[in-house]
Amino acid sequence: MKDSIITYKSPKDPISEAFRNMRTNITFADIDEELRVLTITSTGKGEGKSTIIANYAVALAQSKKKVLLIDCDLRRPRIHRLFEQPNKRGLTNVLLRECEPTEAIQTTDVENLFIISSGPIPPNPSEILASKRLIELINQFKLAFDYILIDAPPVGVVTDAAVLSHVTDGYIVVAAISVTNKEGVRLALETLRNVNGNIVGVVANNAPVSKRSGYYYYYSAYEEDQHQSKKEKKQRKIKEKRGK
To answer: Which family does it belong to (predicted)?
Structure first.
């Protein structure tokens, strides 16, 4: 397993604690409806989404939950590399009925954590991910796992992440502070909302909230909206007072 899976390599590291906080925040993000199928995406390439979902998967598994991590990034798959597993057989093989789902599931060094790698890269990723076969597969996995985590391509680059709205309970969007601007985040969130995607939150990667580089900080996407709303109300009150 790669050193970047710090929740496994160094569970007492502050970064590992940040992922445990992320686990808690997401668990209580929707009290009325349990979020069992979560999809992670990003605004663009190279923002660390695969590393983040891998660490989050470990954090979930460490809480005694049975977790399945599926690599649905059928363009630049990385999950098998992070966990140092083969990728000869994976999701595409299952969707094309070339093997049984159980044959594609791989164990990891982490108890309760299993993965399905991407498998061979197909010429039509979006069409495959939009298939009814994937819905059947996810429903089948729900019977065997507590949580299903999906690593999807960047929503700001291709449509693959958006087409997964029919199988996911919620989206987590990764934005690298050093790479992404506010407009990029806004467009990514808008794309997901246009397909009725439930946006659970945003992970600000490499945010300057710690002296340690690579520190991950989770916050609800709606907290920013609520903060903005309060700010606008305050500004209106000031204008009203001045008008008087």
So the answer is: Belongs to the CpsD/CapB family.
